Each structure stands twice: as structure tokens, then as C-alpha cells.
Amino acid sequence: MRKTQITIDVELDENHIPENITWNAQDGGIEKEETKATMISVWDEKNMEALRIDLWTKEMPVDQMKMFIHQVLVSMGNTYQRATGEEDVAHWLEQMAEEFAVKSAIKM
């Protein structure tokens, strides 16, 4: 069995607020790539629940956070469609993402 790693390094200020976030992905050729935000979700099969880590730096602009959330919502629809084959629900998620884009004023 082959293993690989994806790591996220977070530098915190004195109040434990992220100041810098970098990530590494061995197989993707990514090393110490800076980012302003990350969302990680894992499935806990034992408790049948999603566990999350959402981090963003103090420097993450609100307008970029809105775009980030929009793109995560779009990708969730794509992932759902690939995982389940349920195009109708995936389309609904895509519509919801577009409604979010309008309501958050990132799209007209």
C-alpha cells in the first residue's frame, strides 16, 4: 500500500487567531503554498457525522470569503453528483449556490 500526505501549517497570534496558513501536498508538487482560508471535512462513521475544521486568517477579505464559500457550494454539488449519480439533487445544490452568489452580492 502506498501512502501520501497533505499537511496544513497554521501560525497563530497571541490570541490563537490564524495569521498565516500554508499547505503541502507531496503528490501535487505543492510545498508551503500560502492560503488565506481552508475548510476540511471528514466523515466519522462511528458517530455518523461530519467533522469540520474551518480556518481563515485575519487578512482574508470578506469579498474573497464570499467567493470561497460560493465555490465550495458549487463543488459540493459536483461531488454529490459524482458520488450518488443524482443529477436532480446536484442541480438543486448548484441553484442554491447561485442564489447564495446573488444574495451575497458576488453575482448580479
Q: Which structural class is indicated by helix and strand composition?
A: alpha+beta
Low-pLDDT runs: none
Helix content: 25-40%
| Average pLDDT level | 96
Beta-strand content estimate: 25-35%
What's the order of the H and E elements? EEEEEHH
Q: Strand order, main sheet: write it out.
A: 1-2-3
Major sheet: 3 strands, antiparallel
Output the radius of gyration. Answer: 16 Å
| End-to-end Cα distance | 49 Å
* Total number of strands: 5
Shape: globular
State the helix count.
Answer: 2
What characteristics describe this protein?
single chain, 108 residues, alpha+beta, three-stranded antiparallel sheet, two-stranded antiparallel sheet, 5 strands, 37% helix, globular
Which helices and strands appear, and what pairs or packs with what?
Elements: E1 6-12, E2 18-25, E3 30-35, E4 37-44, E5 49-56, H1 62-84, H2 87-103
Antiparallel strand pairs: 1-2, 2-3, 4-5
Helix pairs in contact: 1-2
Structural description of this entry:
Pfam families: GldC-like. This is Gliding motility protein GldC. It comes from Chryseobacterium gambrini. InterPro entries: Motility-assoc_prot_GldC (IPR019854). With 108 residues, this protein is of the alpha+beta class. The protein is built from two helices and five strands. The chain has a three-stranded antiparallel sheet, with no helix packed on it. Helix 1 runs antiparallel to helix 2.
